[in-house]
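Hey,

Quick one before I head out. I ran the complex with DQA overnight. Inputs first:
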Amino acid sequence: MKKILIVNGPNLNLVGEREPGIYGSDAMPNIIKKAIAFAGSKGFECTYFQSNHEGEIIDKLHASRLEYSGIVLNAGAFTHYSYAIRDAISAIKIPVVEVHLSNVFAREEFRHTSVIAAVCKGSVSGFGANSYILAVQALTL
Ligand code: DQA
């Protein structure tokens, strides 16, 4: 069975209680549960990893490169400045879909820049919990 990995970066473990006006009140475990169920309905096994630490995210991307057919990545604030995560995405051959709950382009200016977008297969931003389902869907097509 083909496998998809969902990776969440810093502070995303607090979604549900963190700034609900921006990120919604659905807790992250529920959001992930729905994305995993969607992947299952398309015949994909889907697993989840979250870390608040840049190096752990990089290690996970490296370790996943031979095991998964694609990765959904919400790098959180690392999206906007982590060249190390960008290089890790470039270093692996499997497709990575960038995902954001909020529409980053409708927010503060520093969020308008994604240093990972150019090395990702594509990006989904602004659809709340459904952003994850849409990103998983992109990897199942
Ligand atoms: C986010 C957007 C980022 O700008 C922010 O730092 C996050 C969450 C989102 O999912 O909307 O932590 O990636």
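The chain has a mean pLDDT of 97.

Talk tomorrow,
K.
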